[in-house]
């Protein structure tokens, strides 16, 4: 499987990054060669996938809880932001590790 799409100089949102990865995996076509309506369909598919994944499973909740347990009231705003990023990553990693 190929890597994530390359950001071509502009800050790319997560929906677009995911849509590009889905398009590449599904059709093997470079994003820039897709018609705008096809790009929109891939973006909508990503939103549908996110809606299906919105509620974390038990493993994801536990992975996120590991970070939350260590949050202290004296942390700085940047530390809270870093905790949020790590919580997201831990939860996604737990989801990726799930075996069907």
Account of the 3D structure:
The protein has 100 residues and is mainly alpha-helical. Helices cover 64% and strands 0% of the residues. It folds into 2 domains: 40 residues, no CATH class; 40 residues. It is built from 4 helices and no strands. Helix 1 crosses helix 2 and helix 3 runs antiparallel to helix 4. The model has no long low-confidence stretch (mean pLDDT 83).
Give a quick set of tags describing it.
elongated, mainly alpha, 100 residues
According to DSSP, the number of beta strands is 0
**Structural category:** mainly alpha
C-alpha Rg (nearest Å): 17 Å
Give the H and E element order: HHHH
Largest sheet: none
Number of separate structural domains? 2
Mean pLDDT: 83
Distance between the ends: 19 Å
Which term fits the overall shape?
Answer: elongated
The residue ranges in which pLDDT falls below 50 over 5 or more consecutive positions are: none
β-sheet strand percentage: under 5%
* Total of helices: 4
The percent range for helix content is 55-70%
Describe what is shown at a glance:
The chain has 100 residues and is mainly α. The chain is built from four helices and no strands. It is elongated.
